[in-house]
Amino acid sequence: MKKYFKIVSFGFLLLLCCGMIPRADDKFMTAQKISGRYFNVFYESGVDVRGLFKGLDVNPSDMLLTGKIKETGLLPGEELAEMLDVLFVRVCEILDMRLYSFKGTIKVCYNSEELNMIYDDLFGSDGKTRKSFYNYDFNIIYVSAENFSRDIVTHEIAHAVISHYFVISPSAKVQELLAGYAEYQLRSIPEEK
Ligand SMILES: [Zn+2]
Fold first, then answer.
1. What does pTM read for this prediction?
2. Is residue 81 included in any domain, yes or no?
3. Lowest mean pLDDT among 9-18, 58-67, 115-124, 170-179
4. Residue 105 Cα, ligand 1 centroid: separation in angstroms?
5. pLDDT (tens digit per residue) in 133-159
6. What is the whole-number distance in angstroms between the Cα of residue 118 and the centre of ligand 1?
7. What pLDDT digit, counting tens, does each position of 113-129 carry?
8. What is the CA(76)–ligand 1 centre distance, in A?
């Protein structure tokens, strides 16, 4: 048993040294976790979960088109997971890319500042500021709570779908176009005044 533990610890250290485990993820070790069908969602404690799922603005037509019936009595975290599942199915439909065994991760940090620190830690600074990004190697969507909107989350989910659908990935430019298309098609319609 001791020997097994040593091997596992050594393996973990090796991965850490080789950069296989993102160091920037340290802050999510104590994060809250909820799981839906398509995503495990981690959010830093103190993040307003109700605010997150309100930002997704999932409407009755989303529910209808995905064949989902809104459940009652769900905890805010469960509701968030369900809304993300609905958006995932909508993105797959819009892109006409069906994925049946997908499971990704979404990590929600506090603000853009933290998000950009995570990006710089993972990929090195390129001087740009981001509201969200998708880590292809680990299939993780990173987004800050202050930018957790339908448009942004839809865009990043599209990147995850595209990267899993193609055996040979299309160019970054084409992926960006497709993600932009999904975002545009699923954009929230402002309420009439
Ligand atoms: Zn993009």
1. 0.84
2. yes
3. 9-18
4. 17
5. 999 999 999 999 999 999 999 999 999
6. 17
7. 999 999 999 999 888 89
8. 28
Whether 11 is in a domain gets the answer no
Q: Please give the tally of structural domains in the chain.
A: 1
Q: How far is the CA of 3 from the centre of ligand 1 (A)?
A: 45
Q: The domain that contains 123 carries what CATH number?
A: 3.40.30
With 0-12 CB in 10 A as exposed, 13-18 as middle and 19+ as buried, what is 19? exposed
> What is the Å distance from ligand 1's center to 141 Cα?
11
d(CA 157, ligand 1 centre) in Å: 10
Q: Which of 100, 121, 106, 82 is nearest to 159 (CA)?
A: 106
Ligand 1 center to 134 CA (angstroms): 8
Q: Answer whether 39's CB lies under 8 Å from 103's CB.
A: yes
